[in-house]
Known about the structure:
7 helices; single chain; two-stranded antiparallel sheet; 6-stranded mixed sheet; alpha+beta
Amino acid sequence: MSGWSNYTSxxxxxxxxxxxxxxxxxxxxxxAFIDVSGxxxxxxxxNRVAEGGAxxxxxxxxxxxxxxxxxxxxxxxxxxxxxxxxxxxxFEGPSHQYRATAxxxxxxxxxxxxxxxxxxxxxxxxxxxxGVDSGxxxxxxxxxxxxxxxxxxxTVASTLACEKAANAGQVMIGAALRAFLPAAMVDANGxxxxxxxxxxxxxxxxxxxxxDNEIFVAPQFR
Length: 222
């Protein structure tokens, strides 16, 4: 283990160095929420038919989410929260709209490449739905026993509504981000054209040095 910073978001881990004791801020950024479907079926199948099914599920989770997190970081994004089999992603800084959109497209490609899992009961295909939108995002640093990051506001609400409306294999774009992107990239229903390349994507932003402090990790996990 190289440090506690591996287990928390970059935004939270660099908060003190950038913002001091400030407890909340509002930024302009892009929020993406992705949900991987199929894990419930996979868990039930492995636990039913395979000895050590829980260990196999953990191995699959590590492989798949390791790949997805790596893609997010390639586009300068930050995993703000894990939510079961979902990821809450934050993009800020130059070209955050394009980087978040391109990352969402790359995540769909990534889940297609690693989301086919062979079990003793047959092959199970994991798929992903995603919502993405841009605008003001409120960030709050909270907690007593440890520090946690909350990502809040209407942009988050819009993104969650987009993800809920998207089917597996789709990326739905919110109204604010849709108005920013070239019209050819998004169809009339707000769905991102996954066949079309995303232009004007900057290279990933450099990672900021994180405060390697256990205060960012829940005591139960430590």
